[in-house]
Amino acid sequence: MACLLMAMTLVFVAIGGRLVSIQGISADHYLAVGLSQRVRTVSLPGQRGTIFDRRGQELAVSIPQTTIWADPQLVTDPRQEALSLAAVLGIDSTTVQTKLRSEGEFVYLARRLDNATAAKVTDLRLPGVFGMPEPKRFLPAGPLATSLLGSVGADNSGLSGLEQQYDQQLAGRPGKLIEERDPKGSQIPGGLRQYLAPVNGQDLVLTIDEPLQVQAEQALAAQIVATKARGGTAVTMDAHTGELLAVASLTTQPVGSAPAATSQTATSAAAAGATAGANRLACPATPTTEAASTTTVAPPVGCQPVPTTAAAAFTGVFEPGSVSKLVTISAALQTGVVSPSDRFSVADSLQVSDALFRDAESHKVENWTVTDILANSSNVGTITIAQRLGKQRLDAALTAFGFGQQSAVHFPGESAGLVPAPAHWSDTSIGTIAIGQGVAVTAVQMLAAYNTIANGGVYVAPKLVAATVDTDGRTHTTAPSAEHRVVSPEVAQQMTTMLGEVVRVGTGQTAKIDGYTVAGKTGTARIPLPDARGYMNNVYTSSFAGFVPAEHPELTSIIVLDQTPQFGGVAAAPVFSTLAGYALREFRIAPVVAQPPAAGVPLATPATAQAAGETLSRGAAIPKSGATAKIGSTSPGTTGPPARSSPSTTQVPAQAATVPGRVGPATTTTTSRPARP
Amino acid sequence: MSAPDLVGPARKPAPVQTPRHLRLIGVEELAAIRRRRRVRLAGIAVAGFVIALLFAAVGMHVVLAQNQFRLDQVDAQAAAQQAKFQQLRLQVAELSSPQRILGTAQGKLGMVPATGVTFLNPSSATPGTPPGPTQRGPAPASAPPGWSTIKPQLAANP
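The joint structure predicted for all components is written out below.
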């Protein structure tokens, strides 16, 4: 009896001790264990904002998908559950089983499943296996404008393009839900429940017009193939507001490969350099050195146009060539050093310091007006005017037109271009820079320069985002683009007349649009070799920039084709005609009754316009290199003036940074008549 | 003979000393009795109230559980409808993509782009004035109509 009493006492003491341990000493621990078993914290993702085009069409949208996860501590039969899941998810059952046997309380099984597959998993009703919403970024229009939109990563953050630039606005703030649930996953009535609502991201309304963007990419892609180019850029802008309506950046790559950057991108973005280099190997199109090769350009067999990884219109730089003559002539007219009716004796070559500059075609000494010089795209005539202008005023004009600085868009990786400061100009720089060599610009910069003339002499900063829509659905329109006057309305009108002559009778005739008057300028510039001195042989950066209707400009466009054997008047101007023609119809811009030319501006004649410039019939031909080469390594520019300081200069890789400084521009001009119209 | 005949003449029973039920009590004793009675009544009332309260609590818990179940169902329905809306929104965006329409028009229907558009200029138009439609150039950019109403509703469901 005493033993029994003793035993019972011990039992009660043990029970009491355990009770004290559970309820007193280790109470917090057991409380935590209990909570962990029934309290679940669910992260509620804030939905990433939508990117709309200007018509409200979704270009990028986040849609919640179902991510399947498991709490291994709640899984009852890992093997059987793994087999069931593997069959539905189409993955290896061993992998799933390993995850289900892991130590933690959370493991991903499959992320962002489509609804049908997620429903199948849910129907299995497996213990310890759950689903949660996780947004996935979709591009409803496919690869359209992807180089502009950029991409998002697995964590839903922007990695490139507008997704990166506006990540702070687009990304929402995640919320969370803390609640007590029973082992079956049902909420315990009256249990703990704390809900912190997620905040959706803001939407972006772009200035881009989706149908025009489609047209731009299709027209550009067709011309890239037709002209055997390595890539290209097409940008269209609203002449009054600066809104960019289409920004197409394409490159070529082997069929089936991942997108890569164009060589334009390669010369400006270090990150894209390696990709472009790989692409160059995959789609060879160019001979290496000028002296070593007389071979013709190999067509990029098996290559297809695809969007670039970065929008080359902002990130890529190129030596513009003759399209840049707009700046020289405008500045000369604005400062009064020349008037439109002034006549110049223009030979087909001109000695500047130790360099000999030539026109694209040989011709006798002509008595040309400024209009003739522009319509002919005469290098000699333009340099003559630039010499009157002087380097300080030419440099001021380049700055006023927006060169050497990032545009107001500040696109990720955007280049400021490369414009050497006057202090670093060589003796030949007045010749090279006047005709668009020795400087590097982005397509958007050149577009904005032409738009300045279209807009009556007022520079309008390019704009890409029209509005944002906040969480509550309120629309906030972005501020109007900044403006500043560059040239007087009279000079803008004179330039418009001259540029109209370029298209009417000059080198840009293929840019004509039935019923409309087009004003614009062609450009054909040589391309520096990326890894050596000298220029690529027989391939050019061919471009056309202009606006329409010339009498009352509404749209400004630039077309740039990279590494094409054809000239700007043949390669780029037809794309302008196609694209601008479509835009005129789409935006219901009717023809304007023709106006007389600006006062005091003589018109060009077909005879003079084609005397020195490329003719349309010759456009597809590849002229041989010139024989004269008097400058080069001896030029003061050899050492390479540093690029004008700008924040974005550091984004330009070394090979791009050497462009203005290399002897190239001058050498090009003297050895092979580079700055073709 | 019947039994009653054997009984002799009835005798008058002796008077029984019955206790006296009525007595005079004092005021204090009366108050105490009343207090005890009130306490008993209060006790019964409290017990009844507690029992009723317990039943009410159980009933409320049942209602709570039922409503929680219904709330779960409604939440699930809301989430499903939102997911359906988002899917349909994506589907509409894909179907209205100009690239898809263009591909269908040209690839399946054999349509070709218009080669040109003829504009008629009113004779009254003066040189330099746009005689075309009232809307010239791109219309102002904007989000889709009604989006400001829809967007606030598109929150992640708990």
